[in-house]
């Protein structure tokens, strides 16, 4: 069944890219853009005030990949994300694949590709531009193996426990838990607890 209407927020620090996206969507009557943000905090504020079907993020080349990944981690629990990228970004790709909430398009995608991706994602599908998929994108092993204790901590993180709860469960100090989490993030190349859990599940280090 076709979607009657799709509402999206656009976020890009570049005015030229904002206008480019608006032109790309201008001829599609079923896609509505109630607001455009130039910063991530503004986008986050818009989403907290009024729900939409998805967020379209075009970060440009000046925003670091780690920063973009942090944005995805924060947003994908709230709304699917269509991310534009000028080059392959394995970390963001793998996160979107694991979260099953959004997709990625090349920064020079056509209007038809953009419209198709937005409608598909709003329908619950994931969409990825083949030009952004490389061998590194689908192979992301841990740099170092986790210790048995680190595996326990990561498993409890996956269960949604906080530092104090994990410390109580394992009968060790909260300070030690923080040390283990820092070690886990470093070994997995993750920038957050949520990303570490996603990487641990995808690589088979832990199971739900």
Uncertain spans, ≥5 residues at pLDDT below 50?
Answer: none
Please identify the top-level CATH class of the largest domain. Answer: Alpha Beta
What is the CATH topology classification name of the largest domain? Rossmann fold
How do the helices and strands follow one another from N- to C-terminus?
Answer: EHEHEHEHEHEHHHHH
Structural class given helices, strands, pairing?
A: alpha/beta
Radius of gyration: 19 Å
What's the rounded overall pLDDT mean? 86
CATH superfamily of the largest domain: Response regulator
Number of strands: 6
Main sheet: strand order: 2-1-3-4-5-6
| Domains (count) | 2
- Total number of helical segments? 10
The rounded distance between the terminal residues' Cα atoms is 34 Å
Q: Tell me the overall shape.
A: elongated
Content of β-strand: 5-15%
Structure overview:
The protein is an alpha/beta fold. The chain is about 50% helix and about 15% strand. The chain has helices spanning about 15-25, 40-50, 65-75, 90-100, 110-120, 135-140, 150-160, 165-170, 175-190, 195-200; strands spanning about 5-10, 30-35, 55, 80-85, 100-105, 125-130. A six-stranded parallel sheet has the order 2-1-3-4-5-6, with helices on both faces. Helix 4 crosses helix 10 (about 195-200). The chain starts with 5 loop residues before the first strand and ends in a 6-residue tail after the last helix. The mean pLDDT is about 85.
Gist of the model:
The protein is an alpha/beta fold and 208 residues long. The protein has helices at residues 15-25, 40-49, 65-75, 90-99, 111-122, 135-138, 148-158, 163-170, 174-188, 193-202; strands at 6-11, 31-37, 54-57, 81-85, 102-106, 127-128. A six-stranded parallel β-sheet has the order 2-1-3-4-5-6, sandwiched between helices.
């Amino acid at each position: 069944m076709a979607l009657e209407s799709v509402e999206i927020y656009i976020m890009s620090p570049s005015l030229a890219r904002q206008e480019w996206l608006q032109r790309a969507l201008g001829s599609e009557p079923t896609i509505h853009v109630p607001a455009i943000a130039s910063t991530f905090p503004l986008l986050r504020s818009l989403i907290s005030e009024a729900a939409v079907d998805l967020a379209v993020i075009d970060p440009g080349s000046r925003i670091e990949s780690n920063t973009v990944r942090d944005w995805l981690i924060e947003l994908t629990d709230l709304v699917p994300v269509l991310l534009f990228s000028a080059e392959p970004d394995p970390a963001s790709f793998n996160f979107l694949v694991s979260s099953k909430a959004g997709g990625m398009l090349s920064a020079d995608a056509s209007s038809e590709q953009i419209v198709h991706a937005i409608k598909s994602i709003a329908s619950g599908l994931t969409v990825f531009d083949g030009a952004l998929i490389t061998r590194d994108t689908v192979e992301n092993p841990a740099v170092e193996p986790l210790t048995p204790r680190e595996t326990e901590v990561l498993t409890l993180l996956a269960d949604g426990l906080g530092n104090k709860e994990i410390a109580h469960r394992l009968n060790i100090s909260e300070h030690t838990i923080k040390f283990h989490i820092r070690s886990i993030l470093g070994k997995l190349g993750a920038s957050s607890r949520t990303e570490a859990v996603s990487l641990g599940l995808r690589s088979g280090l832990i199971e739900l």
